Amino acid sequence: MAQIATSMANAFSNESEMKAMDANRYATKKTIAQGMLDIALLTANASQLKYILQVGDQHQFYKLMLIMISLSIILQVLSGVLSLSLSLMRDCRMHKPEYYQSANVINHIRTGFAFFTATINLFISAFDTRLPLLIGGQVEEQK
């Protein structure tokens, strides 16, 4: 009888652990965190664009930086529009199997935009002359 009671108690504790790990709650938190990171990147790009426009042609890579920052902002906005359309599709039509293919295509395109945005921002960081050079373990200010 004691074994049955122990087994029942273990079953109830496992069930409560499964309820604690709700997949929808995890997905919601992940989406919110990703949105905050997207907003932070958009804010950083806006700040970099402001700096480049203030400095003007005096910046060594003015045209390149202007093009890359603008392209990054455009890709972020398009990615946001695709995310909105995907969430609207999920809320309105995802119960219908014929919309699965288009949702996957939109998701892949959005992932591609995110990859290219990250790559462009890597190059933006490389060409940013506001950052000091690190040579031989010592920081050397650019002139």
Would you write up a description of this structure?
A two-stranded antiparallel ribbon has the order 1-2. The chain has helices at residues 2-20, 23-55, 62-93, 100-127, and strands at 133-135, 138-140. Strand 1 and strand 2 (138-140) form a beta hairpin. The protein contains 4 helices and 2 strands, in the order ααααββ. It has a domain at 34-129. By secondary structure, the protein is mostly helical. Helix 2 runs antiparallel to helix 3.
Quick synopsis:
By secondary structure, the protein is mainly alpha-helical.
Q: What tags apply to this protein structure?
A:
single chain, 143 residues, mainly alpha, two-stranded antiparallel ribbon, 4 helices, 78% helix, elongated
